[in-house]
Each structure stands twice: as C-alpha cells, then as structure tokens.
Amino acid sequence: MQKSFQEIKPTLYVVSTPIGNLKDMTYRAVDILKEVDLILAEDTRTSGVLLAYHQIKKPLLSYHEFNKTDKEDQIIGYLKEKKNIALISDAGTPGINDPGYEIIKRVIEEGFHVVSIPGASAMLAALVTSGLIIQPFTFIGFLPRKISDQKAVLENYKGRMETLVIYEAPSRVSKTLEVIMHVLGDRKLSIHREMTKAFETIIRTTLGEALTMEMNPKGEYVLIIEGLKENQQPLLDVVEHYEELIKAGYPSKEAMKIVGEAHQLSKNDVYKRVKIERKIT
After folding, report:
1. Does 100 share its domain with 132?
2. Could you tell me whether strands 38-41 and 60-62 are parallel, antiparallel, or unpaired per DSSP bridges?
3. How many C-beta neighbours within 10 Å does residue 29 have?
4. pLDDT in tens, the chain (281 residues)
5. For 72-75, which contacts have Cβ atoms below 8 Å and span 24 or more sequence positions?
6. For an engineered disulfide with 117, which of 15, 33, 63, 185 has Cβ 3.0 to 4.6 Å away?
7. Do residues 63 and 127 both lie within one domain?
8. Which DSSP symbol is given to 199?
9. Strands 60-62 and 137-142, how do they pair?
C-alpha cells in the first residue's frame, strides 16, 4: 500500500507535459519540477525549451527508449540517496507510447513511491473533440510498421464495438489508413493533427473519404475510429464474398451488385473495398 503523502519516501514523479502549447502546463507540474533533485527527460534539448519557458533550472538526465535499461540502476541509486526525481517525456504523459513503464515498475519493486502529476494527453484531447462515442474506448497506440503485422493487430479489434484510438507518424498515416479500411471496413473517423498548436487540424470524416485526401506530411496524427455497429459487416466478409462469386464465373459488375445487396452496400463501396484489398496484399 502506497500512502503517497502520509508516508514520506523518495519519490519518482511521473509528470505530464504539454503536447504542443507550452502554456498547457499545470501549476502543480511546474512546482514539482522546481522542487525535485533531478529530471529524467526523453530528449534534453526538447525538454530544455519547456523548462526554460517556465524558468525551471534543474539537472537533466537523458532517459529514452535506447538507454532506459542502462540508466535504471543509476536512477535507483539516486532514490536510495533520498533524492526525488521527475520523469517527463517530449510531450504528454510518460509511459503512454513513451519510455516510462520499465523504470516505474522498477521503482515500485524497490519500495519507493511513484506519484502521477496529471496533465495533457494527445489521446484524450483528440477523443473528446472527435464527435464519436467517448466511452468505452480502446487505446491501441502505434501499429507495427509491417503491413502484415498491422493487419494481425487490427484483426483483434474488428469485431469490437468501442471507439478505437491509434497514433501514427505523418510519413505513414496514408498507408495506415488503407490498412485500417481493409481490415475494419468503412467507418466514421476523426483525424487529429498538431493538437493544441497553431496549425491544429481536425478532420471528421469516414475511412473511405479519408483515402481520397492528401495528408499533411508534418505533425503527429491521432486517429479516432468508430467501433463496429451491430449491423455492420466486417470488411473481409465482403471481399471474400466477391472473390467467391468471381471464382464461380460471375462478371465483376454482377458480383459487385450481388455483394452490395447482401451487405447493404453500394456497388461503389464494394469496388473500393476490393481495390484496397488488392492494393495492400
């Protein structure tokens, strides 16, 4: 049992930082960063800008995906010296698609406190402005880079009825949308880019319409995807039905008409799904 403020122990503070706008920093977060003995930062240059803006002058230690294992003993050593430490990431809440889980787990195992200083999260900022059902939702995070692995992950969610949240880099977002459409079928979609920044953009559309759009190559993306409706047919059922008719000798247009009527889709929707299937396989 951790009694965070009744039992005094050396503490690792998990501090949320702005996802874009430097003013999105809580008073408490600023106070904690000014009080701790050391700050663990994913990128000390990026964090240096934030700390300078809020006039925070504390030692920084680099802690990121590629050195997190090597730094664990050093961090535990500081706690054993009764020093308090803050963990921050480049943006948002540490541990949410950022380094953090391993050191948090180790600190807990060593018997020290871990305290959350809540704040900004791109996932929640996008979700509450999407116009889609907010709860329940499932946060998937970044999909794997290989298309085959992406499809395997998405297969686990295609029958789920809750809203899905996915992160994606600008260089891969268009291809990822194709894979999502392929596996999940056409659904409502909200695309969020540059959240809280001057060029914040939200596109409330559908997966099918999104595939006709040119995505901006700058800024991280958050994709909010509608869950499966009760009467919605998963995409692969449609494509497999079409392919079976083609194998049976039906002309393409006739096959699309039959599939469309069976799945309550237009021939154009069937065409789009078959086209996506062939493009990414």
Report:
1. no
2. parallel
3. 23
4. 999 999 999 999 999 999 999 999 999 999 999 999 999 999 999 999 999 999 999 999 999 989 988 999 999 999 999 999 999 999 999 999 888 999 999 999 999 999 999 999 999 999 999 999 999 999 999 999 999 999 999 999 998 999 999 999 999 999 999 999 888 988 999 999 999 999 999 999 999 899 889 999 998 999 999 999 876 656 557 788 888 888 888 889 888 888 888 777 888 888 888 887 777 66
5. 72/102, 72/103, 72/106, 75/12, 75/40, 75/103, 75/106, 75/107
6. 15
7. no
8. T
9. unpaired
d(CA 57, CA 164): 39
CATH number at residue 168: 3.30.950.10
| Residues 261 and 219 grouped into a single domain | no
Tell me the chain's radius of gyration from C-alpha atoms: 23
111 plus 128 within the same structural domain: no
